[in-house]
Amino acid sequence: MTGPNPNIKHPIAMHPRVGFLKGLVTAPNIEIGDFTYYDDPDGPDKFAEKCVLHHYPFIGDRLIIGKFCAIAEGARFIMNGANHAMSGFSTYPFNIFGHGWEEGFDQETWSKEIRGDTIVGNDVWIGMDAVIMPGVKIGHGAIVAAKSVVTHDVPPYSIVAGNAAKVVKMRFDEFTVRRLLKAAWWDWPVDKISRNLNAIRGADISKLEAAV
Question: Which of 41, 76, 139, 199 is within CB 3.0–4.6 Å of 208 for a Cys-Cys bond?
Fold first, then answer.
């Protein structure tokens, strides 16, 4: 048992709506780990165009998504290119339309709104139509409920929901979370993961630790 090839674009036969994103996304400012998939009835091939919005290379921000993540239809990552300068009376981006309106624009008023990279950890489940705002960091093992709007960092192994999304539940107690993060099964070689699937998808932390 070796598991699927993470570079296959459409790993499920007769089910083209699911795709491993590593083989589908080529944008240099997007990094996606092995086995992370996107599910869309129109197909996953346009993930970068449909789901990663306002992501302009000249800004320099990156979208980093870990391994073994499940991303549902309609999830959206809003990147820093969507931000407007907010320090003045108007947030209207006069400068981008030129014809003299760009004169006197202070670039720093806009650059101060850059929130940095958006980072999704490993083994994260992002529900249908969830929106992830710029610069958010989602911890390993977290779950983002459908239609949530995530405006702040999400702790590992938490479940967040709502607009703005808040922690509604921790999946495991604090001690177990620390042990899970230390085990970091997603970084194991694929053959080791394949041999220990029952420990990974089970709920016995001692059994998982014994496989480390």
Answer: 199
